[in-house]
UniProtKB/TrEMBL annotation:
The gene is TBC1D9B. It is a single-pass membrane protein. One of its GO terms (biological process) is system process. It comes from Cyanistes caeruleus (Eurasian blue tit). This is TBC1 domain family member 9B. PROSITE patterns: EF_HAND_2 (PS50222), TBC_RABGAP (PS50086). Residues 807-834, 909-1001 are annotated as: Disordered. SUPFAM superfamilies: EF-hand, Ypt/Rab-GAP domain of gyp1p. Residues 963-973 have a biased composition (Polar residues). Residues 816-832 have a biased composition (Basic and acidic residues). May act as a GTPase-activating protein for Rab family protein(s).
Length: 1094
């Protein structure tokens, strides 16, 4: 497989299938290979070969359908094409695996979660033929995800196995058939009938597991007892002995220590609110208006339980009016509580409660306020995580207090916007509790940090739960129940919005077309889903929605949304624009009331939408919920998960397209490429980054991507990746010298010295070679032979580098900051957003703007050693060119002229004699390159001693030059008279030395130079015939220098050189060629498909 498709060894094959690929109307029988990162197909039939390679990250749609033309086929869509595969032996298995691999690729695009094989998978009890380890891994992942979603278990819970069985249910005295699931920490049961019974038994609660006597009525029974005095009877177990052994093994690993306070909290929740001795805290109490520091900046007090919200919800602290409790609403509330108490008696209480259709009916009628916090924790699964992580929240609060970053700033800005109409958040007690919970979560999950709408949801959680409970509910909400909702791009909400549109087309086809034209669904659904209707409905009604959501999940939010559209269908069909439709829906939601609520009504901010003509019709929340179940209750959680996958592909690829357009627009103003060329370059650049993520030897590339950065900064490549792109795209092909030139350009573009470049820096470098006039292209080539591009390792060249870069202070500060960050790693985040740093970045950006004013006069002069490197590069560039001989002759002429000009320029530098002595000292003290011999070092010193004599000889030789040369020298004198005090003139020898020794190059006389004589190691040195070679031997003249203007003027005299640099090259053709060979690795032919596992 690797040999066939040019894949490296690290690319792993998951499975392969026999199928047909439809090319036009002709099926091509072949093999479909599914690897971790690619979909590949190969067919060789009747002498015709078909090879396909598609990256999973490029797939925009994946669907299984059946048509007359393509019977039972799989359609794979990318941005460029649609591919059809059919005639599978097991199409369902193939499609399921393709979905998994495409989903892994989408996670990689979304949050850099690349595939890591699970090495801890247990070996199968029986050897499985033709199933690779990767296939087993992916199957196990799919089962784990389904298991965790069904029973709302923590994200790290792994299913060990499952078996068919029956469960004795004492409430109806029946044996219910279903399946038992066993994992590291839980035993779960799900009945075959969806609503019959669900059961979750944490192993931490189990006291006894024993085998009962078998009988014809009850074969192979198993009894499990818990600490809460409940006993569960399972029967019809096929392999009971093995199952008991597995459960015993897990029980031995389960810590028996139970966090203190759990029983106390539940008993406290069961108690009658009238008997609780909780001090009332009206808004005027001293504690309520205490300063922030008393609550939010004293984590020790919080951990010690001195903060009131550490032990109870805000509603218990801010007591409601006793008249409400004694009236008919209070009586109704008492009846609800009694109904739940009866349910607890029959079905059990706590995590081990039997969850049946009766439980759902009670939830639909509204959970009593005193039980709301407890039941939210149970139904969401947050209770499991809280119990298994005692003290986790208190430690997070302690660590996060006093720490500042971008998330904490956003939290502070939104604190007073969180339910400002509720009295609990009109004082510092509620605000401080909200601050602690949000800040703790931001530090727990920096990937999400803080997102708007989290404050609204968390404030409601704090009303009914203490801080720790609210924190774990927020964890369950953000990480399991509403995945990817609360990130910078709200991907999860956009995915469910797509599902909502799809369901509208299915259930309300007439309204769907109208809503699509108005564009309303995309506007309304985000606010509905992100805040669970809390921001669009009166609080007393929305909290009932939250009750049902914690029990049913996103399915309930979708069916209520459909019910709302259905109730307003006639009015919406008559709307003329989006604003009118929004007003109709806003008025409807404002008037959804909860007549059973015992809480005093809270003014709703959206009530301003209600017109003052006729009193609006009130809608009872419980009627709305009942209607939603009657009309749309047939929605299945499995179907929604399937739809989520389909929409996730569409949403993430749409976001990637948006990111591409944003980046292209951001860089197009300063770059010479067209929009089409920039888009193609972005695709290639991104593909190179992603390839390094899954084919690199380590995961450092994935760690480089920071989702919080702007789109332009998210994809960055290192030097090796840049070299690969440069070699395939550059118009300046230099043969074996090309990687060297690529490394220099990378160092030139990497202005912040982090060894990474973003897309703008990449296209800036490419544009310098493709666009602009001769002057701009030569300027790029000139810079590639000056520090920092030429000699990054040589620390002595720092002064020369800073004289070239105008932001010398910035560079020094950046290096110092790097050192400080390495020493003080934990303080990195604190410093990152301080006001002082903002000013620093503003100064840096201002200096970046100033750099754009650079002219050719700002470029530093080039030393003889650097000029020799430039000549070597030009020689390599011209090889294999159609007019190779003309170019060689032209560059030989120009180099000869420039060398003579450089000799003349030495007389204008006016360097003091003492400088020569310094040069001599430096030459004897500086470390010598490995290629330099002691002989060459001595000759270099002798050359410096002979400098005055050389100057005299140069004067004589220059006088004898032709008139053209004298005219050039006159121009030279005028253009390069920098003066004695110029920093470009006062460079010592060790500052102008290059990191590459030149002593190994052969020296030739430019006077007798022929194009055919230039070899790869040839260096052009000398002025008049062979006298220079005789005078200098194998040394470099350290006083020699040349300016960019002189090089430009000399180049313009040669037509061949001008034509070469002004020649237009089509980069789109280069990109097309690059795509053809990007996966053809030189080592790929060494690998064969030796096994299924690849």
């Amino acid at each position: 497989m690797r040999k066939q498709f040019g894949m490296p060894e690290v690319e792993k094959l998951v499975n392969y299938y026999s199928c047909s690929y439809w090319k036009g109307r002709v099926p091509r029988q072949g093999w479909l290979y599914l690897t971790v990162n690619h979909l590949c197909f190969y067919s060789f039939l009747l002498g015709k070969e078909v090879t396909l390679v598609i990256q999973w990250v490029d797939v925009t749609q994946l669907e299984k359908n059946a048509t007359l033309l393509f019977p039972e086929c799989i359609k794979v869509s990318t941005r460029d094409s649609e591919l059809y595969f059919s005639m599978f032996l097991n199409i369902n298995e193939t499609f399921k695996l393709m979905e998994q691999l495409a989903n892994i690729a989408m996670r990689q695009l979304l949050d850099n979660e690349s595939f890591l094989q699970d090495k801890s998978l247990p070996k199968p009890r029986r050897p499985l033929k033709n199933i690779s380890a990767l296939k087993r891994d992916l199957d196990a992942r799919a089962k784990n995800e389904c298991y965790r979603a069904t029973f709302r278990l923590p994200k790290d819970e792994c299913l060990d196995g499952h078996t068919d069985c029956t469960l004795w249910t004492p409430f109806n005295k029946m044996h219910i058939p279903g399946q038992m699931f066993v994992s590291n920490n839980y035993i779960c049961f799900a009945s075959r009938a969806e609503e019959a019974c669900h059961l979750i038994i944490p192993l931490r609660e189990v006291t006894i597991v024993e085998k009962a006597d078998s009988s014809s009525v009850l074969p192979s029974p198993l009894s499990i007892s818990t600490k809460s005095k409940m006993t569960f009877f399972f029967a019809n177990l096929k392999d009971r002995d093995f199952l008991v052994q597995r459960i015993s093994d897990f029980l031995q690993r389960t810590p028996s220590k139970k966090p203190c306070g759990i029983d106390r909290e539940w008993k406290w929740n069961m108690a009658d609110p009238s008997s609780e001795e909780v001090p009332e805290l009206p808004s005027s109490s001293p504690l309520a208006v205490s300063p922030t520091s008393a609550l939010s900046h004293r984590p020790v007090s919080f951990c010690a339980g001195q903060v009131p919200t550490a032990s109870q919800g805000l509603l218990k602290l801010f007591r409601r009016n006793s008249e409400e409790l004694s009236g008919p609403k209070g009586a109704k509330e008492k009846m609800k509580e009694e109904s739940w108490n009866i349910h607890f008696f029959e079905y059990g209480r706590g995590m081990c409660m039997y969850r049946t259709a009766k439980t759902r009916e009670l939830v639909q009628k509204g959970i009593p306020e005193n039980l709301r916090g407890e039941l939210w924790l149970l139904f969401s699964g947050a209770w499991n995580e809280m119990v298994t992580h005692p003290g986790y929240y208190a430690n997070l609060v302690e660590k996060s207090m006093g720490r500042y970053n971008l998330a904490t700033e956003e939290i502070e800005r939104d604190l007073h916007r969180s339910m400002p109409e509720h009295p609990a958040f009109q004082n510092e007690l509620g605000i401080a509790a909200l601050r602690r919970v949000l800040t703790a979560y931001a530090f727990r999950n920096p990937t999400i940090g803080y997102c708007q709408a989290m404050n609204i949801v968390t404030s409601v959680l704090l009303l009914y739960c203490n801080e720790e409970e609210a924190f774990w509910l927020l964890v369950a909400l953000c990480e399991r129940m509403l995945p990817d909702y609360y990130n910078t791009r709200v991907v999860g909400a956009l995915v469910d919005q797509g599902i909502f549109e799809e369901l509208t087309r299915e259930y309300l086809p007439q309204l769907s077309e109208k809503m699509q034209d108005l564009g309303v669904i995309s506007t309304i659904s985000l606010s509905w889903f992100l805040t669970l209707f809390l921001s669009v409905m009166p609080f007393e009604s929305a909290v009932v929605i939250v009750d049902c959501f914690f029990y049913e999940g996103i399915k309930f939010i979708l069916q209520v949304s459909l019910a709302i559209l259905d109730a307003n269908m006639e009015k919406l069909l008559q709307c003329c624009d989006e604003g009118e439709a929004m007003t109709i829906l806003g008025r409807y939601l404002d008037n959804v009331v909860n007549r059973q609520s015992v809480s005093p009504p809270i003014p709703h901010l959206h009530a301003l939408l209600t017109s003052g003509d006729d009193p609006p019709l009130e809608i009872d929340i419980f009627e709305l919920i009942k209607t939603s179940y009657e009309k749309f209750g047939n929605l299945k959680a499995d179907d929604i998960e399937q739809m989520r996958f389909k929409q996730r592909l569409k949403v993430i690829q749409s976001l990637e397209d948006t990111a591409k357009k944003s980046v292209v627009r951001a860089v197009s103003g300063d770059i010479g490429f067209s929009m089409e060329e920039l888009e193609e370059l972005y695709v290639v650049f991104k593909a190179k980054y992603l390839m390094s993520c899954y084919w690199g030897n380590n995961r450092a590339a994935a760690a480089r991507r920071d989702q919080s950065l702007p789109y332009l900064e998210q994809y960055r490549i290192d030097m090796e990746q840049f070299k690969e792109l440069f070699i395939s795209l550059t118009p300046w092909a230099c043969g074996a010298h090309t990687p060297v030139l690529a490394g220099r350009l990378f160092r030139l573009l990497d202005e912040n010295r982090d060894s990474l470049i973003n897309f703008k820096e990449f296209v800036t470098g490419m544009s310098g070679m493709y666009h602009g006039d001769l002057t701009e292209k030569l300027k790029v080539l000139y810079k590639l032979h000056l520090p920092p591009a030429l000699n990054p390792e040589e620390t002595e060249s720092a002064l020369e580098a800073t004289s070239y870069f105008t932001e010398d202070v910035t560079t020094e500060e950046t290096q110092e900051d790097k050192g400080k960050r390495n020493e003080n790693g934990p303080e990195k985040e604190e410093k990152g957003t301080s006001p002082q740093d903002y000013r620093y970045y503003l100064r840096m950006w201002a200096k970046e703007k100033e750099n754009k004013k650079e002219t050719i006069k700002d470029l530093p002069k080039m030393s003889q050693e650097q000029f020799i490197e430039l000549c070597k590069t030009l020689y390599n560039m011209f090889s294999e060119d159609p007019v190779e001989q003309e170019l060689y002759h032209a560059i030989a002429t120009v180099a000869s002229l420039l060398l003579r000009i450089g000799e003349v320029g030495k007389k204008f530098s006016n360097r003091p004699t003492r400088k020569s002595e310094d040069c001599k000292a430096n030459n004897t003290q500086d470390p010598v390159s490995e290629e330099e011999s002691p002989t060459s070092e001595q000759s270099q010193n002798s050359a410096v001693e002979q400098q005055p004599q050389a100057d005299h000889e140069d004067k004589t030789s220059v006088d004898a030059q032709p008139g053209k040369t004298q005219q050039e020298n006159q121009t030279l004198g005028d253009g390069s008279g920098e003066g004695q005090g110029s920093p470009l003139q006062l460079l010592s020898d060790d500052e102008t030395k290059d990191d590459m020794s030149m002593s190994s190059y052969s020296m030739v006389s430019t006077g007798s130079l022929q194009c055919e004589d230039i070899a790869d190691d040839t260096v052009l040195v000398g002025c008049e015939g062979s006298s220079a070679a005789a005078r200098y031997g194998s040394t470099i003249d350290t006083d020699w220098s040349i300016s960019f203007e002189q090089i430009l003027a000399s180049m313009l005299t040669e037509t061949a050189l001008v034509n070469y640099f002004e020649k237009k090259v089509n980069i789109l053709q280069k990109i097309k060629d690059q795509k053809k060979v990007e996966r053809q690795f030189s080592s790929s032919s060494d690998y064969e498909l030796s096994s299924v596992s690849g």
